[in-house]
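user: can you give me the structure for this one chain? tokens are fine.
assistant: on it. calling the predictor now.
[tool input]
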Amino acid sequence: MALRIAHSKEQDPGRLAADLKAQLTGISPTFILFFASSKYEPTALGSAMKACFPGVISLGASTAGEIVTGEMLKGSVVLMALDATIAPNVAVAAIEDPRDDGAVDRALNEVCRALGRAPGQLDGTRHLGLVLHDGLSGSEEAVMAAITSRSNLPFVGGSAGDDLRFQATRVFVNFEPRGGTSAVALMEMERPYALLKTQSFDVLDDVLKVTDVDEATRTVREFNGRPAALEYARVLGVSIDELPGHFLDQPLGLLVSADEPFVRSPQQLKGESVVFYCQVKRGMALRMLRSRSIVAETRRELDQKRAELGKVEGIIQFNCILRTLELERKGECEAYAGLFQDVPTIGFSTYGESYIGHINQTATMVLLS
């Protein structure tokens, strides 16, 4: 058995780990990927998991909700185990200081050395890179920029959550919980895989150019030379008081092609400034976006990617918490989960997604054949 998934809502970490292990009969995993609700105390959970899976290489993250085949969950742990017929060689490493390019270098060199390659020699037909971040560190852009500049392999992943408490998020490296840390996994793959980045927006003609910004705090002070909140509201035709109510349905996007936005989602107003969930830079020309059906768009792109890859044995999904909130608001969680009911799937609701850079209101996925 090349791939198995498991999930559990057991409250006690020891019983939970044992429950997960009991669901993995018939597989000798070379790698375990898991996503855990923040209701579980991280050290206790990590210790219990390590005791049940001694010597197994692992990567994990706390969540703002979990995804498993055909279901969107809360308060659970979801897990995927891969064996050597899919991933014969896997290495993981922590990026202890995500804002330090040297720390990224050391982590990349560590995982590459374990697979006998240099970062610039990675092959997308042979290697898969995963990345997880502390979702409250604000360092995702720095990590992704450093990885992208050093490797030709796209690393895909997401930012850990804490069930919308915004107090503490964790990544797990070989079951050890870490805060203020990013982590990477590099996998040698025996079978083809495909990456999918999907967002559900129409791109409008309106342009908001960033003319004054505090990049460190992701705070835009001016669009088009005017106070950011006032200009954003003007383009939407609403008052500044009404503006936050439009953030979810009409965020902004950085276009890399005619119809491929990398979404920048507003978080809150700060006076007449707008604070975003991911970094924007001075001079960026951002396009206004308008939401369309998450379920319909994801189905279309998922079907297309599955057709290209052929048989799909498993899916790893990093789904933005803002998408989850929209699905909840519209009563479409069951319909969305149903898109994955016939393929072994795990995933989680993230505090941001990783695909080349750091983005929002997007789902990034790995489809395993």
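assistant: here you go. The radius of gyration is 20 Å. The chain has two domains: 3-197+296-368, 201-291.
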